Amino acid sequence: MYKTRNINKEEHNFPRCFLGLKEIDLFISTSKLKTVRREKGWSQDVLAKATGLSVRTIQRIEADGKASAESTLALASVFNLSPQALKATSKEIEVNWTRKTIMKNLIALLMISGAVGMLIILGASVKHYMDAASGLFLILFLYSATIVTFGTSGMLKSLSGLKYLFTEEMVGGTQAKYLGELYGSQVKFLYGGSFIGLIIGSIAILGNIDTYDDFVFLRASAVNLVVLFYAAVLSEGIFRPLSIKLSTCDIKE
């Protein structure tokens, strides 16, 4: 039913960029690999024997798409495909999820949150930074503007794409560029929404200035800035990093 192949790099016209890169990991399409394996009716054990790779290696490659140049050539050889045919297409986002990378990015986010929290505690009471109405307005404005601009599917993709905060190794192509543009636009939506909120709040405060004493006026002015604070934290802590990461992931490849 199958036989182990002797891999000849010339046999499948292996691209030069693959040659001699034994230590460099490449991204292949996990969906393509699973599809061609199942079309032949092979289990992971059978594929492992046919390629000369271990079952554990096959399982890992099918899970995260990350394979060495030699493993990619071995897989392509047994399926009579070129290595390029197994690579992730420009429309796919292939990610190498590892616990180490996830934890590293999670710790980085916690450090950002801790730094902001430290300044809040040093600056004033935490309650001065809490305003549910401002937060709700900003979130509603953000996703309403996203739906108007990118449609409901764009809004859903922006939510599901938040997971890419926790990885570094990925190949994205056109899909990653699309998400990068989407998150870049959401940064603008956040600041735009905060600016609108700031203007409305200022008009409300100044329109009722005769009814305020000095303390109430200053307190209302401080609360009015909270919406801008929320926009800055979300934009610079989440959406701008995501936009840059997705827009440059193929450059780093």
The total of beta strands comes to: 4
Largest sheet: 2 strands, antiparallel
> What spatial order of strands do you see in the largest sheet?
1-2
Distance between the termini: 37 Å
Characterize the overall form: elongated
How many domains comprise the coordinates? Answer: 2
Number of helices: 10
Q: In which range does the helix fraction lie?
A: 55-70%
Rounded average pLDDT: 81
Residues in β-strands, percent: under 5%
Helical/strand content category:
mainly alpha
Give a structural overview:
The structure is a single chain. The chain is mainly α. The protein folds into two domains: 16-87, lambda repressor-like DNA-binding domains (434 Repressor (Amino-terminal Domain), Orthogonal Bundle), CATH 1.10.260.40; 95-252. It is 67% helix and 4% strand. The protein contains ten helices and four strands; from the N terminus they run E-H-H-H-E-H-H-E-H-H-E-H-H-H. The chain has helices spanning 30-39, 44-51, 55-64, 69-78, 83-86, 99-123, 132-160, 173-207, 214-224, 226-252; strands at residues 25-27, 66-68, 94-95, 170-171. The protein has a two-stranded antiparallel sheet. It has a two-stranded antiparallel ribbon with strand order 3-4. Helix 2 (44-51) packs across helix 3 and helix 8 runs antiparallel to helix 10. The longest helix has 35 residues, at 173-207. The two termini are 37 Å apart. Residues 1-23 have low confidence and may be disordered.
SSE topology sketch:
Blueprint: E1 25-27, H1 30-39, H2 44-51, H3 55-64, E2 66-68, H4 69-78, H5 83-86, E3 94-95, H6 99-123, H7 132-160, E4 170-171, H8 173-207, H9 214-224, H10 226-252
Antiparallel strand pairs: 1-2, 3-4
Helix pairs in contact: 1-3, 2-3, 7-8, 8-9, 8-10
